[in-house]
Amino acid sequence: MRYFDEKTTIPLPGIICYNASSEEAGHPYIVTTKVKGIALIEIWDDLSDERRDVILRQVAEIVVEMYSQRFDKIGTLSARGEWVIKASPQQSKVYSSGTEYWIAHATRRLATIFEEARYNAVYDYGGCAPSFLPFTTTL
How far apart are CA 38 and CA 17, in angstroms? Predict the structure, then answer.
């Protein structure tokens, strides 16, 4: 959020505190201030079509501004004097393309599925795995 606060005009809440690891609260978290304004859900039904059109155009402008920010890698955005992309705690590397990221993600997921299937098969067959399940994967 700090990156978008520095690099765009998008209205954002202030960050009070955060923790990117799961150690402190069991999950990553972020606590923010409240953004000034009125929640649209409270007034949307009472707005004229013209006012709704103005609001939707503002939302579209925010989305366009957000998507105009381009990065040459996929990873965690970090401020170290200047903004850099680094490997996240959950991932072992920075990816150079969406294809590379999704192949790595699918490979990790398939390995987990194979391990779960092997464990369940060993459990279901009384401690010995059936011959149709591989003991190792080449993923």
Answer: 24
φ, ψ dihedrals at 23, nearest 5°: -70, -45
Alpha carbons 18 and 76: distance in angstroms, whole number = 15
Question: DSSP assignment of 113-131, as one string?
Answer: HHHHHHHHHHHHTTTS--T
| Stretch 109-136: mean pLDDT | 68
Q: What are phi and psi of 42, to 5 degrees?
A: -75, -25
Q: Any idea what DSSP says for residue 45? A: G
Terminal C-alpha separation, the chain: 35
* DSSP H or E segment with residue 63: helix 49-67
pLDDT tens digits along 51-99: 999 999 999 999 999 999 988 898 888 887 889 888 877 777 899 998 9
Q: Which residues on adjacent β-strands are paired with residue 81?
A: none
- The one-character DSSP state at 23 is T
Please answer whether residues 62 and 10 qualify as being in contact, where contact means their C-beta atoms are separated by less than 8 angstroms: yes
